[in-house]
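SAMPLE LOG
Freezer: B-3
Tube label: C17
Construct: single chain, 406 aa
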Amino acid sequence: MSQSITRQHFDEWMLPVYAPAPFIPVNAQGSRLWDQQGKEYVDFAGGIAVNALGHAHPALQAALVEQAGKLWHTGNGYTNEPILRLAKTLIDATFAERVFFCNSGAEANEAALKLARKYAHDNHGAQKSGIVAFKNAFHGRTLFTVSAGGQPAYSQDFAPLPPQIDHAVFNDLDSASALIGDHTCAVIVEPMQGEGGVVPATREFLQGLRALCDRHNALLIFDEVQTGVGRTGSLYAYMHYGVTPDVLSTAKALGGGFPIGAMLTTDRVGQCMGVGTHGTTYGGNPLAGAVAGRVMALVNTPEMLENVQVRHQQFMTQLTALNRDLNLFSEFRGLGLLIGGVLREEHAGKAKLIAQAAAHEGLMMLIAGGNVVRFAPALNISESDVTEGLTRFTRACERYLAGGSS
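STRUCTURE (predicted):
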């Protein structure tokens, strides 16, 4: 007889690196989800921008089941058809000519940073090893990527950290220019900072970084783990900006909920990584390849990308309207279906309380630091689900303003 599971068991059995919500989801369909008690939620969190097509999408289920009946895993001593098809799909859809598959965004960024050091070492010498990243960035939780992410709260307890990583101010080209030089092997940047507060880069900033990297023979790495696979209304955000990187990391929505990450690059850069220079046991497995291939086929269409833009306008219109009455937010910002609501100064640090109030009202949503509530729903979310979710969000904000979060 199986044991009955409760939220309390997390506190008893799990390493306490998370503080999950007090309820346990057990079933979901599209943009609706139900917990153990049968309570319904509208999902504006999207698994942290992962569930690109919502929950239990029938085409993704079919792809997984079909592949599960054929071949699950062989390891990197062999290749497989689904992953090669996915590689060609990504190459045809982007600037890339070479792909490396892994299991997560952190692994994709780790591979990108290792590639940059290797490329510079082979072509310019060992002295060219500096990496420029940005304050308030987030690139993952490995020691290398957490050091590149410019948030000391995530890295300071794990010192000594990998050296020769400097942090400039995001969207400040003068700050970046002061750090980028002939010793720089790479600049890594998010086209829109997600965890750092849902802050889009300016076109001039990214264009300036491209020019600085060209001038100093440094690679430009775009971390598109959160902004990729249709999230901004373009397949990848670099297309929105018209600035092409040398290396791009992608994960999250790529598998629509199945773990997969990838690093994309050009043939010129990728050739430096020979046999044995990098690898992963699970990366590029057939199950992930089959599901991600179906995700790409469904997301990379004019209809889906247009829906992202239409739903963006719906969010912005309705959020602006509710804020006229509540006066809780100073601005709403973002691209596509990655949107942040910035709290007014008198409510600074209270984003978590609003998210907790939202859960009470039957809405799952995210925060991005203490001052920003974040919306990252499925790309195919319906007009009615957005309206219902924002109705619940309004009630949550009213609950917070009345002094209650639960």
